[in-house]
Write a structure and sequence with these properties.
heterodimer, A: mainly beta, 6-stranded mixed beta sheet, 5-stranded antiparallel beta sheet, 11 strands, globular, B: 114 residues, mainly beta, 4-stranded antiparallel beta sheet
Chain lengths: 113, 114
């Protein structure tokens, strides 16, 4: 069975500071990995995804994530936080294009002015 | 495309009443998922369909929950009878299976059972 662990249910950073949201996964087969963002009272929006190929993946709004198989990690980063980045972030895993995503518990990002 | 459309956006009902949530997936997508989001349990998969056929309903919490997909453009999630512990945000998502594409989510239905 697949699973996702997001370390830290709440992360707070200053505006302009580095954003690092941690995600570790468990999968018996090569995973497909996703990061979604959820703004208040909204659905989930895809930030970026890794399926195959380059392990450093760039997404929208300046976010990127690196797939590290040896560490079973897919951490999300952004060099400089903006107030508009405040939201809930979810990491998700699947092992094919036919099966549903398994989500982590989410990390709420706060950005302090 | 308008994206995944869910209705209603908000539903308040009394315990014991029947509740029906509706979802219109993105045209051309052949997989549809129902998720439930709560503070305690996060995002849980309830059921998913491929080509209108239910594939896995092991996430449906009880027999009070049922889901149908009569055609490729419509799905319902029904709770009968509803209970206060069913209060949550219910999301519908769709994707194009087999092509490693992401799931696209609707805006969700916030259900409150009093």
């Amino acid at each position: 069975a697949q699973s996702v662990t997001q370390l830290g249910s709440h992360v707070s950073v200053s505006e302009g500071a580095l954003v690092l949201l941690r995600c570790n996964y468990s999968s018996s087969v090569p995973p497909y990995l996703f990061w979604y963002v959820q703004y208040p009272n909204q659905g989930l929006q895809l930030l970026l995804k890794y399926t195959t190929g380059a392990t450093l993946v760039k997404g929208i709004n300046g976010f990127e994530a690196e797939f590290k198989k040896s560490e079973t990690s897919f951490h999300l980063t952004k060099p400089s936080a903006h107030m508009s980045d405040a939201a809930e972030y979810f990491c998700a895993v699947t092992n094919s294009g036919n099966t549903p995503l398994v989500f982590g518990k989410g990390t709420r990002l706060s950005v302090i002015a | 495309d308008a994206g995944v459309i869910q209705s209603p956006r908000h539903e308040v009902t009394e315990m014991g009443q029947e509740v029906t949530l509706r979802c219109k997936p993105i045209s051309g997508h052949n997989s549809l998922f129902w998720y439930r989001q709560t503070m305690m349990r996060g995002l849980e998969l309830l059921i998913y369909f491929n080509n209108n056929v239910p594939i896995d309903d092991s996430g449906m919490p009880e027999d009070r929950f049922s889901a149908k997909m009569p055609n490729a453009s419509f799905s319902t999630l029904k709770i009968q009878p509803s209970e206060p512990r069913d209060s949550a945000v219910y999301f519908c998502a769709s994707s194009l299976a087999g092509l490693n594409t992401e799931a696209f989510f609707g805006q969700g239905t916030r259900l409150t059972v009093v």
